[in-house]
Specification:
Blueprint (H helix, E strand, L loop, with lengths): L9 E4 L11 H6 L6 E3 L9 E6 L6 E6 L4 E5 L14 H9 L7 E5 H9 L10 E6 L6 H12 L5 E7 L2 E4 H7 L2 E5 L2 E5 L9
Parallel strand pairs: 7-8
Antiparallel strand pairs: 1-2, 1-5, 2-3, 3-4, 6-7, 8-9, 10-11
Length: 201
């Protein structure tokens, strides 16, 4: 399968042995290839995709690697904004509300809600947050951001937004607070006041 994996994409693997570089013992006990792994932000090593595994508990997170040839299915956050019918969890209902707006960007859902929608596994609880992702190749218009934030304020759950630029990702709330952000890049985090600019050597 010829894939271009981006951070937050969910990947299904061909077999359990496709996941390498894992040291946490709980992964062998709880994870199997019918469950997706999530692409994390890191420098690719020897052509391998950096991924993370989530366990049953919040603190159960493990970092590993997979070969592109072992990926059999990819679901992006954008593909999960159309939730299944008859799911009355607050975060899913929040997605229904957000879909009623016409946003000028690609957006999707990540975190536990994205994982639940992609797998059907019961990982959500009543206090789960809604983690959202906006793909922004160019700077966002303040009026659009204001409209987005206003929509989030009316949702039946807490919602957090991550902005993905060509150079990394940052938290929208942090950007709105100070105009500076900790941009998460494949080479590590860096503080910047322009997350749409490439760092100069």
């Amino acid at each position: 399968m010829n894939i271009t994996a981006r951070p937050h994409d969910l990947l299904w693997l061909r077999h359990d042995r496709a996941l390498v570089g894992i040291t946490e013992a709980w992964v062998a006990e709880l994870w199997h290839c019918q469950q997706p792994v999530v692409v994390r932000r890191d420098v690719m090593q020897q052509g391998l995709i950096p991924v993370g595994v989530r366990g049953q508990a919040r603190q159960q997170r493990a970092a590993g690697w997979v070969a592109p040839a072992d990926v059999v299915r990819v679901i992006s956050p954008e593909m999960l904004v159309v939730p299944p019918q008859l799911n009355h969890h607050p975060t899913v209902q929040a997605l229904v509300v957000l879909r009623q707006h016409n946003w000028p960007w690609e957006w999707g859902v990540t975190g536990s809600t994205g994982f639940a929608l992609a797998t059907g596994l019961p990982v959500l609880h009543q206090d789960s947050d809604l983690d959202l992702l906006i793909r922004a190749a160019t700077p966002l218009r303040p009026a659009d951001v204001s409209r987005w934030q206003q929509a989030l304020s009316t949702l039946p759950c807490r919602a957090d937004t991550q902005i993905e630029t060509p150079f990394g990702g940052f938290a929208l709330n942090e950007w709105l607070r100070s105009g500076r952000v900790l941009l998460k890049t494949a080479q590590g985090p860096r503080l910047t006041d322009n997350p749409w600019a490439e760092e100069m050597p």
